[in-house]
Amino acid sequence: MASLRDLRSRIKSVGNIKQITRAMEMVATTKLRRFQDRAVASRPYAQEIAHLLGRLSAAMGDKLAGDPIFRPGPGKAVGLLVIGSDRGLCGAYNSQLFMALERWIAANPGVDLRCFVYGKRAYQYLQKRGLKIERYFAEPPLEKLDYRLAKFTAKTLTEAFTSGEYREVKILYTAFESMAKYVPSTVGFLPVQSDAAQASQGASDVILEPNVEALLGKLVPRYLETRIYNAMLEAITSEYASRRMAMKNATDAATDMQGMLKGIYNRKRQEGITKELLDIVGGAEAVRGK
Amino acid sequence: MANQLTLRVITPDRIVLDTQASSVRIPGVDGSIGILPRHAHMVAAIDVGPLRYVENGQEKALFVSEGFAEVKNNTLRVVCEAGELPEEIDEARAKESEKRARERLAGKKAAGEPVDLLRAELALRRALMRQQVTSGYGRQRVRS
C-alpha cells in the first residue's frame, strides 16, 4: 500500500488536474455560448435565402432541370466535406464522426471518395485510413470561422463539382440538436436540391428584377454558402458542447477521486497515530512494570 | 400603420434594421428601384450601394452589399451579405481601403492580372459606397 507521502502527492496532483479541467470546462462553456448565439443570428438569413430559392426555382419551372448545378454531375467521384475538430479532449466528438464516416463507406462500397477536410484530427484520421484527400483547409482554423470562410469553402466545392469529375458533393458534420445531443450526419450539398414543388403557389405573378436566370445565378452561390456556414457553426457548437461535457465529467471524476484518496489518507494517518499511541502506552507500561 | 411598409435588412450575422418606412429606394443591379407601400410582389437582385429610406419624415441611408430584396405583403426584406448603418461605418477605414484599391488598380493594370483587377475594382466600389452613405446621403435630412 502506498505510503502517506505518496498519497499526499497523489491528492495534490489530482487536485491540479481538476483545476485544469474545470478551467477548460469554463472556457468551453463561454465559447459554446458564443457560437450558439451566432448560429441563432444566422438563421433568419439562411431562411430567407432558402425561401427565395424555392420561389425562384418554382418560377423557373421546367427550365430548372437544364441547369447543371441542379443535376448530378457527369463524373463518378463523390466529394465529401468532413468537418472535424482541430484539437482533442472533446470526448467522443471525433470518433463518433469517424464512425459515421465508416458507416457511410460501408453502405457505399466501391465509391471513388474524395475528401475535403476541416480539422486536424479529421485530417490525421483520413490520412491514416488511406482515403483520398483532395484538400485540407488548415488555415484559417474553424475556430475563427466567419461568413467569408464559408464563402470560400462553398466556392472551392462548387468549382470541384462543376469540373465534371464529381457525381455529387456531400457534407459530413456533427449536427447540433441540443446541449446534450449532437449527431454526426451526412447531408447532400451538390447538386442543389430545390424543394420547388412546395413553394410553387402564386409564383407566376411575381415581378422579377432583372430576370429569373440572373437572379437564380446569383442566388445559388449564396444558398450554398449559407448551407456551409450553417454546417460549420453547428459542427463547432457541437464540438464545444462535447468538450464541455467531457471536461465536466473529468472534473467530477477528479472530485470523486480526491474524496476517495482523502478517505484512504485519513484512515492511514489514523492507523499510524493509533499504532504510535499503542507503542508509547506499551512502552510506558513496560517501564512502570519494571 | 397606414401608408407605411416594413423594412427589414437581414445579414448572416444579424438583423441590421427592422423598421417602418414610408418609402424606400434600393440599389437594383439595373439601377435604383423605388418602393412605396403596397408595392406588388417582387423579387429583385441588388447591388452594392446606399439603400435610402424615409422613416418618420426623415430620409436615412445605410450601406448594403450584394444581395436580394423581396417585397411581399407590404414588407420589404433585404437579404444581403453586409449591411451597415452610417454610424457604424468607419470612415477612415473606408478611405484607407479606397486608397489601397486605387493603388492596386494602378499597379495591376500594368501587370494585367484579371482576377485581382476585378477584386480591386469591387473593393473600390464598396469603399466609395460606404463613404457615400456617411457623407451627404447619410445625414438625416428633413424632407421638404
Walkthrough of the structure:
The complex is a heterodimer of chains A (290) and B (144). Chain A has 290 residues and is of the alpha/beta class. Chain A has two domains: 4-20 and 248-285, Orthogonal Bundle (Helix Hairpins); 28-246, Pyruvate Kinase, Chain: A, domain 1 (3-Layer(aba) Sandwich). Helix content of chain A is 61%, strand content 16%. A five-stranded mixed sheet of chain A has the order 3-2-1-4-5, sandwiched between helices. The two termini of chain A are 37 Å apart. Chain B is α+β, with helices and mostly antiparallel strands and 144 residues long. Chain B folds into two domains: 5-86, ATP Synthase, domain 1 (Sandwich), CATH 2.60.15.10; 88-134. In chain B, strands 3, 4, 6, 7, 10 and 11 form a six-stranded antiparallel sheet that branches. Chain B has a five-stranded mixed sheet with strand order 2-1-9-8-5, with no helix packed on it. The interface between A and B is medium-sized, with 26 and 23 residues.
